[in-house]
Amino acid sequence: MNRLDHVRARVLGIINSRLAPFAARGDKNLVKPTYICFKLSERCNSKCIHCDIWKNQQEDPLTIHEWFRTLDNIREWVGPTHVVFTGGESFLRRDTLDIVKHATGLGLVCEVLTNGLLTERHHCEELVKANVDQVTISLDGVTPETHFAVRRVPGMYDKILRTLDDLDEFRLKHKARLKILLKMVIMRPNLHEAVAMADWVKAKGQAALRYQPIEQSYAQAENLNWYKDSDLWITDVARVKAVVGELVQRKQAGFPIRNTVENLQSMIQYFENPDREMRKVQNHDERGSDLCLSGVSSMVIASNGDVRWCFQMSPAGNVKTHRPQEIWKNRPECWKQPCPWFG
Ligand SMILES: C[S@@+](CC[C@H](N)C(=O)[O-])C[C@H]1O[C@@H](n2cnc3c(N)ncnc32)[C@H](O)[C@@H]1O
Ligand code: SF4
Question: CA-CA 20 to 30 A from 217: which of 3, 49, 159, 175?
């Protein structure tokens, strides 16, 4: 990825996001996906309390050549767009680095999202040398105890700290522009460490930080009422308000918090009124749009090649048999009203 590809990807993203509200209401062919997520593996080596993906034992993954072909098709169709490699845990594949390197070689702006358990020193150097734009590591506590309470794998916290040091070292050594992001999902078991996390990240000076409020556990059958009997849901809204207030102060003082102030504040409304705010949170859209953006700006390709825009719907196609652009054109199911999920 060179600087020009980066600029083009940004411009494409901006144009798409301006067109998205019109596309969501009318002509969906105005837009191409600008958030493409590749789930390289549906398996996982963690045992998180907020995500059931690790309970999935089986998958029928694409071969490395099928991934290469899919990436080639995407580059040809969309241009140098942002793509995310994730899972499950993508590093459970032995050839993940080769797939990522193929993508950066095509000029795609690549993010790798990982739980940090398998990122060895040589992975870190290769990611840096491959010009990956961003490595995002999930960290759900500022202490090993709290991270363990969420992730339930011994030694994971220390491993993440080593990965941070390695990435930082190789970034300096190779004069790379790699961004490192830590991602914390805010939920009842770790709310008490959310502010300390911002202080810790600032003091370390290696990474930026993004907060994400808890949603229904991934890989569960959808249930709009999930939060009502969840131990992870935060009912103490006064405490959320106090924490968000502290985070906003830090953000305004220049701490490396990626969320906008509005996005941080929207977490108060979410915990206050989840029924009203759930769609916005599930959209993962910084502007807080409550228009459904499924089939408008995002595309998820599962490890077996299935393509989806929305987890309420069955897959729209598979990249083993069709090119992503053909599947994208054929997505009218998305627009049938009423939506079975949000009406
Ligand atoms: C599904 S994981 C896949 C990547 C990798 N295994 C990891 O944990 O970073 C992607 C992100 O989703 C987040 N996540 C999982 N379950 C969630 C939930 N119920 N609510 C909000 N975020 C969740 C994880 O914490 C992680 O940051
Ligand atoms: S959040 Fe990531 S690490 Fe945890 S179970 Fe889900 S996929 Fe695995």
Answer: 159
pLDDT in tens, 13-56: 677 666 666 666 666 666 788 889 999 999 999 999 999 999 99
Q: Is 303 in the pocket of ligand 2 (CB under 6 A)?
A: no
Which residues lie closer than 8 Å to 315 by C-beta, 6 or more apart? 302, 306, 307, 308
List for the chain the helix, strand, coil content (%; round to 5).
45, 15, 40
Residue with tokens 């959209």: 283
pTM for the predicted model, two decimal places: 0.92
Whether 234 lines ligand 2, by a CB cut-off of 6 Å, is no
Over residues 204-255, the pLDDT tens digits come to: 999 999 999 999 999 888 888 999 999 999 999 999 999 999 999 999 999 9
Closest ligand 2 atom number to CA of residue 50: 1
CB 52 within 8 A of CB 79: no
Q: Which ligand is nearest to the CA of 87?
A: 1
Question: Rounded to 5 degrees, what angle do the CA atoms 42, 48, 91 make?
Answer: 40
**Residue 205 buriedness (CB in 10 A; 0-12 / 13-18 / 19+):** exposed
C-beta 112 within 6 A of ligand 2: no
Task: List beta partners, residue 136.
Answer: 113, 181
Q: Reading across the β-sheet that carries 82-87, which strands appear in turn?
A: 208-213, 179-186, 134-138, 109-114, 82-87, 35-41, 298-301, 306-308, 317-318
What DSSP string describes 186-231?
A: E-GGGGGGHHHHHHHHHHH-S-EEEEEE--SPBTS---TTGGGG-T
CA of 300 to the centre of ligand 2 (A): 17
CA 186–ligand 1 middle distance (angstroms): 11
pLDDT category at 191 given cuts 50, 70, 90 is very high
187 lines ligand 2 (CB under 6 A): no
Query: Which residues are paired to 294 by β-bridges?
Result: 298
Residues 6+ apart with CB under 8 A from 140: 146, 147, 150, 151, 184, 185, 187, 190
Domains belonging to the chain, first-starting first, are 3-335 (3.20.20.70)
